[in-house]
Amino acid sequence: MKFSQKIVLASSTLLLVGIILLSIQQSMLVKSEVEGLVNSSLEELEKGVSTIVSAELDSKRDLAKSTSELIELSPYDHQYVSQVIETSVIKQGFITVGMGYDQDGFVIENDDVWEVDSSYDPRSRVWFKQAKNQGKLIVTDPYVDATTNKVIISIGTPIKANGQFIASMFYDVELTELANLVNKVNLLDAGYMFILTSDGSTIAHPDANFNGKPMATYLPEVQVREGIQSFEKDGTQYIVRFTKVASEGWYIGAVVDESIAFAAIAEMRNSSMIYAAIALVLSVLGLSLLIKFLMRPLNDLNNAIQDVASGQGDLTKRLDTNTDTEFAELARGFNTFTENLQQQIIQSKAIGSDILVGTEQSHVNAQDASKAVASQLEELEQLATAMHEMSVTATDVANNAQGAAEAVKEAERVTDEGSKVVSDTTEAMSQLSMRVDQAVEEVAG
After folding, report:
1. Three-class SS state of 324
2. Which residues pair with 107 in a beta bridge?
3. Residue 188 · residue 261 · CB < 8 Å
4. Amino acid 207: pLDDT
5. Are the CB atoms for 126 and 99 separated by under 8 Å?
6. What is the rounded CA–CA span in Å between residue 296 and residue 298?
7. DSSP string, 402-435
8. Pick the residue with more confidence: 24 or 437?
9. Does the pLDDT at position 439 exceed 60?
């Protein structure tokens, strides 16, 4: 891999890492903002619904309270009581309104369908007991009406005469309107709202089959408490948020599909990936062109070095130093190198010429030496021939010398013998001379 390609790869990697980190940071920031927006939106919607529910129930309470006050004007007059609860305002505001007397359990009601039988005793009902015991308006927990099978609540009020409790009135309120109300709320086109009691019983749900049932039947992983929770259902991730209706102790829940509510985050993430890929490709192309442009001085240096290395380079050529500082220093270094190399080659060439002259002279001298050697060889051959002849002569001389030596030895022997003879002769002559002298002396004497 070329150096420029490594630079492009390293730069692209750093750019990609930077884009990824930036995308992650932006995604986290956007997710936090969207989550905050969704949370605040749900909070506002839930508070709005809570306010409407509270207002609706407060209006029911006020109507029940004012009606009870009218009844207390003549509580023992059954006809009067019946006329009050049969008014259109009362009948439209409540499912059923009635009053049960504490003394005998007698019931007056305005339901055209309901026939009260003798087994029905209002004094055993929760609304009666709570209103009597508390001495004020009460609201029962939601329950499923045995007749309509709908979730309702009962408002109970005590009826007094001369300060004494004599009866209790009930005002049945159907919660279907609450279900219709929460169903009208648009949760970002990603979920629905519902209403629960504090113990998890469903008051109003878009699916009427869940009304009156525990929340655990359709949201088993969720707990009834204020705040946000997450859960998974059928492979889809949801968030649920509860807001408490303070006046009733109820909870308004909002279930939202995260994939829809946070679709902007997913879209931004996908867009970031696409733009990151585009930016990476453009960056690689841009960096490649830029590095190719910036690396031209290095390419010139490379070509010059290859030219010199090939043995056919022009050492008089110099690189342009009017460029970036790093490449300028490199170019000056190369120019200095080629200049020194040029001078060394010139010196080497001069030395080579001198060597050539010396070589030619040596060649001439060698030729002369060769001739002299040839002459010497010829003389040596002659000398060898002479020496051979001398050797032969010497051999003869040696043979002759040996014979002469033997002759000398023989002569020495003969000489010795002659010397002995001469010695003997001398001695004999001496003796003879002595004898002659003696003879002379004898003669003279």
Report:
1. coil
2. 100
3. yes
4. 83
5. no
6. 5
7. HHHHHHHHHHHHHHHHHHHHHHHHHHHHHHHHHH
8. 24
9. no
Give which of 264, 261, 250, 262 is closest to 192, Cα–Cα: 261
Per domain, the residue ranges of the chain are: 3-263, 314-444
Closest CA to 258 of 240, 242, 238: 238
C-alpha–C-alpha distance, residues 243 and 176, integer Å:
20
Say if residues 50 and 74 touch (Cβ distance below 8 Å): no
> 138: closest CA among 60, 212, 246, 47?
60
User: What is the token pair recorded at 265?
Assistant: 């985050």
Give SS3 for 62.
Answer: helix
Q: 129: helix, coil or strand?
A: helix
As beta bridge partners, residue 153 has: 173
Classify domain 3-263 at the CATH superfamily level. PAS domain (3.30.450.20)
Sequence-distant (≥ 6) Cβ neighbours of residue 79 within 8 angstroms: none
Residue 256 CB contacts under 8 Å (≥ 6 apart), including other chains: 38, 42, 187, 188, 190, 191, 238, 239, 240, 241
Averaged pLDDT, 274-280: 80
C-alpha dist (Å) from residue 231 to 24, 29, 219, 243, 292: 24, 23, 9, 17, 55
Which pLDDT tens digit goes with each residue over 172-223? 988 777 777 777 776 667 788 888 888 888 888 888 788 888 999 989 889 9
Strand partners, 316: none
Of 126, 199, 224, 210, residue with least CA distance to 168 = 126
What is the DSSP secondary structure assignment for residue 226, as one 8-state letter?
Answer: S
What φ, ψ does residue 139 adopt, rounded to 5°? Answer: -125, 125
Non-local CB neighbours of 137 within 8 Å, separated by 6+ positions: 61, 64, 65, 68, 131, 155, 156, 157
Q: Which two tokens stand for residue 335?
A: 């120019």
> Are 280 and 15 spatial neighbours (Cβ–Cβ below 8 Å)?
yes
Longest dimension (CA), the chain: 249
Q: Please list, in sequence order, all residues whose beta carbon lies within 8 angstroms of the beta carbon of residue 297, skipping any fewer than 6 positions away.
A: 319, 320, 323, 324, 327, 330, 331
